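Collaborator request, handled under Task 6.
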Amino acid sequence: MSNNEKNIAASSASSSATSSAASTATKTPRMAGLDIFRVMAVLVVLMFHTKINHGCDFGVADGFIRMGAIFMTGFFMLSGFVLFANYSGKNVMEKGNLKQFYLKRLIGIFPLYFFVSVVYMVFCGSESLRQNLILFPVETLGLQSHFSSLFDVSHNSGTWFISNLFFCYLLFPLMQEVAKQISNKARIFAIISSSLIVLWAPLVVHTFSTAGIYESPVFRALEFFIGVLLCSLSSAVSARPKFAFMGSLWAFLVELAVLFGAVTAAVQMNIAVGNYSIYSIIALPLFILMTFTLSMVKSPALSKSKLLNYAAKISFAVFLAQTFNTEIENFIFTKLGIEGNGLKILTAFVVCTILAMVMHHLVEKPCRNFLKKKLL
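Structure tokens returned to the collaborator:
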């Protein structure tokens, strides 16, 4: 796989991880609309991998799917938004709460991450025993994304986002305090400032040919912080009648259509195709709008949808399953002689879904429940 291919595999993930890990002692109403965002990100990333790894054609959506990695920006924003919402009535900085917070975060993401890491090293990795021993503390502590040149080593191309997510979790208590203590004007200023840094960084990379920042913990943490700030503003926005139009699925569809059209047009004009960070210029503002819109949607049908709820629950596993599914799909294509475009897409979706379900029910869920009983 190329660097860009591997970048996306990782990208994926994540949205679901935060959702699963973000259960708290303070019960908050479920924002089912945000599950739509989470599931959409999973599907787009999966289609993206199907395109770059198997050359599949998605017709009119092909250009958009080609840049599907942009949804990692939306994922980190969504993660920050959901976590702040779940802890809105709790002071994480308090001694007992801080310990509980970090334990829940570790329990939420690390069991499945360790499982994927070990399976990859044993069955897929090409590193020697000595190399794996040297990597062990880095991988165990989730530091791999702080070494940009480690991206193509071992399983890191598929698990880098765990490193970034863990870094965001470490910073969240401070982010929460900042977001809670500043005024709405200061929050808006912080969102604009953080967004400008995120959008300016790719220009620095392009101008001076520096190492890419796609998996950079610093810039992903800024995206996460934007999500935290958005959530801290959401009640003020939703309370104003003039913003009531945003709280509908129609508004979301308009925002999605603009994102689709702008990305497709840029790809057709061959503007920085493959540079997912630069495309944040298009994606970041629209993801901000989508997050606001979907957080405001009130739909009993969505809240009661077992399919949507289940898809959101296994989304973290879907992201991590993509560490393996390309090799499995290539094996199936060869053995069964599958060459058709549609059949390849269907096979990729089925394989990834089955892998995710197995990982969720046999590893993620039982480990989480066991560790909660033991540690919490």
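The cover message to the collaborator said: "The chain has a mean pLDDT of 90. The chain is about 75% helix and 0% strand. Please let us know whether this matches your experimental observations."
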